[in-house]
Amino acid sequence: MYRLFAKILAGLIATVVLAVGALALVVSHNAACEPPPPAADGASSFTAVMQRCYGDADIITVETVAKAELAESDVLVRVHAASVNPLDKHFLHGTPYLLRLVNGLNAPQSPRMGADFAGVVEAVGSGVTRFEPGDAVFGVANGAFAEYVVRSETGGMALKPANLSFEQAAALPVAAITALQALRDKAQVQPGQHVLINGASGGVGSYAVQLAKAMGATVTAVCSGRNAELVRALGADRVIDYTQQNYTEGDTRYHAIIDMVGNHAISDILGVTEPDGVLVLVGSMKIDPWWGPLARPLHAVVRSPFVSQRLEPLLAITTAEDLTALARYADNGQLTPVIDQRFTLADVPEAIRYLERGRTRGKLVVNVVQ
């Protein structure tokens, strides 16, 4: 009986291993790029950046695509500017592979690229009440690297901050909302608290420094020496050059640490976090091909019951309400985007390559209307 049970168990284990291996092969396979479909005769069209397969920046194309009919709740926006996010490179490569379960196994379901945009409303559906043609707006939409995007009026879109240009507004949505939700919702920062921002000169970090100061915190910014003056100008009270000093070995204790880098063990970071403090995990340099940026937050969830500090993974969600909150900060002079480089639609492949070098100061902007 024991031998029979052992054989059955071994057979089940072998089956599971083979199934997992087969799934891994299927999910990690990149299909060949499909050619674009023929344009419909007489259809109104515009230019958009596309990826018709998974791969590196070389597979990106700029194509002419047909305008879709607007649904009752849709808003058509003429894009003036867009910006580049790490999210864009994840969708380009199809990594982590778990992303493909929702975005398409071997090729993306939607070939359009880009998320952040700012522009002017050109047309609205018959049921739209929040926006009208001529409104300057900003937000997140599928396919922002294009001359036009379509967004539901109830989705992640709001009126553009009055004192920001289109390219500045386009640099806000994903990164600034991530910083806002990390500080306000996860860390629950209060005036007088000491906050450390690890990765302070990047897209999210540059906004986190400014928002933490606007919330009344004392801010320590961690970045390279070449970016020290930049983060001081953004409001940092103290700057640590990570190439010269390890902040986890210092004597200062922080109420909140917002970590965009993941270059230190969680145990080391908690060593400089107040016993009732919080570590917010936003990103990581070490990206697992299967779990991607989820690997470190999952580690934190497992560890959380055994420490006094709160460990808070963050998956930011874009809402119209938070975009409006960001617009208020910008209109009050408390939030100004840092723009590193500017590109055109044709230059999007180079923009992605620049992002992947990991040296971006603030944001990369794609100007659509020149």
Descriptive account of the structure:
The protein is 30% helix and 24% strand. The protein has 11 helices and 15 strands. The chain has helices spanning 2-28, 86-93, 100-103, 166-170, 173-187, 203-214, 228-233, 266-270, 295-303, 320-331, 348-356; strands at 45-50, 61-66, 74-84, 116-124, 136-140, 148-152, 157-159, 194-198, 218-223, 238-241, 254-259, 273-281, 310-313, 339-343, 363-367. The strands form 3 sheets. Strands 3, 4, 5, 6, 7, 14 and 15 form a 7-stranded mixed β-sheet that branches. A 6-stranded parallel β-sheet has the order 10-9-8-11-12-13, with helices on both faces. Strands 1-2 form a two-stranded antiparallel sheet. α5 crosses α6 (203-214). The longest helix has 27 residues, at 2-28.
The helix-strand sequence is HEEEHHEEEEHHEHEHEEHEHEHEHE
**Helical residue percent?**
25-40%
Tally of strands = 15
The fraction of residues assigned to DSSP E strands is 15-25%
The helix count comes to 11
* Largest sheet, strands/sense/barrel: 7 strands, mixed
Class per helix and strand makeup: alpha/beta
Summarize the structure.
This protein has 370 residues and is an alpha/beta fold.
SSE diagram, text form:
Elements: H1 2-28, E1 45-50, E2 61-66, E3 74-84, H2 86-93, H3 100-103, E4 116-124, E5 136-140, E6 148-152, E7 157-159, H4 166-170, H5 173-187, E8 194-198, H6 203-214, E9 218-223, H7 228-233, E10 238-241, E11 254-259, H8 266-270, E12 273-281, H9 295-303, E13 310-313, H10 320-331, E14 339-343, H11 348-356, E15 363-367
Parallel strand pairs: 8-9, 8-11, 9-10, 11-12, 12-13, 14-15
Antiparallel strand pairs: 1-2, 3-4, 3-6, 3-15, 4-5, 5-7
